[in-house]
Amino acid sequence: MAKPSILVTRRLPEKVQARIARDYAAEFNDDDHIFTSDELLRRCAGKDAVLPCHSEHFTAEVIDQLPDSVKIIANFSVGVDHVDLEAATRRGIVVTNTPDVLSDATAEIALLLTLGAARRASEGERLVRSGGWKDWSPSFMVGTQVTGKTVGIVGMGRVGQVAAQRFRGFDMQVRYHNRSRLDPAKEQGAVYHPDLDDLLGHCDVVSLHCPATADSRGMVNADRLARMKDGAILVNTARGALIDDDALLEALTSGKFAAAGLDVFNGEPGGDPRYRELENVFLLPHIGSATVDTRNAMGDRALDNLDSFFGGREPGDRVA
Ligand code: 8YV
């Protein structure tokens, strides 16, 4: 039987690309640029499947123009906000993602952002690198201690639960907001807040771990930020779309917030340039899952989903 044909939109780890080349008739993106919608559509011609990253946007408009041959979008990502799931379902296209395998790596970045923002790490590093470190005093580069404080996890899914575990390592009290309450074994003493507004006022650190959906987009707005404690820290490893940037920039410049740690942005790559002007933000370029182990595991997970689909089985990580 002929191998299914597949478009792989970005360069993946060598081991993953080798597995794809062995089992599929693959077209790779040799120079690894982000495809425009037109290019994506052109390259999908005659393909049975596409294996994209979050950088390719499968809007309803794109999905409606996909050739009939495309039967599955097997994402190399846990987030699927770049795919219009309703449009895919309407066209009978299966969509899968790569959960679990990136939870540890992303939780590591949530902790890094928390500590980096709280202890002014990038500001300090810039100072040393620039040769501007000329003095020391007891009030020099004083930051916020997080040990023993309270963290609010917004979205207690797979990544949120691992992050909670890591925050506990800093003796932090964990509170969380989620659509539904976890069972007590998974809660591990974390305090559940059915109402997000109610959670925010209790927390010294708020860490976002929920997907970007129609309901959650812009949920961190001026009203919600005002409910947070003075001197709080906001951390985002989920999606930039959760945050109203004007409101967060105001909280960071007015003195309301101590700091923020951001790995994801509206308008990636790049993000809102106004963040770059601020000292009290710790910024990373969407590297939550960027470890060798995790990227290999994500590739294997995406391919397991494809293998199931083309083997006539239900893919384990089907989201549409
Ligand atoms: C991935 C992510 O690196 O999986 C996700 O949803 O946001 C990232 O950690 C990226 O999406 C790869 O496509």
TrEMBL record:
Gene3D superfamilies for the chain: NAD(P)-binding Rossmann-like Domain
Annotated organism of origin: Rhodovibrio salinarum
Domain D-isomer specific 2-hydroxyacid dehydrogenase catalytic positions: 6-319
PROSITE patterns in UniProt: D_2_HYDROXYACID_DH_1 (PS00065), D_2_HYDROXYACID_DH_2 (PS00670), D_2_HYDROXYACID_DH_3 (PS00671)
InterPro entries the record matches: D-isomer_2-hydroxyacid_DH (IPR050223), D-isomer_2_OHA_DH_cat_dom (IPR006139), D-isomer_DH_CS (IPR029753), D-isomer_DH_CS1 (IPR029752), D-isomer_DH_NAD-bd (IPR006140), NAD(P)-bd_dom_sf (IPR036291)
Record key words, sorted: NAD, Oxidoreductase
Descriptive protein name: D-glycerate dehydrogenase
GO cellular component: cytosol
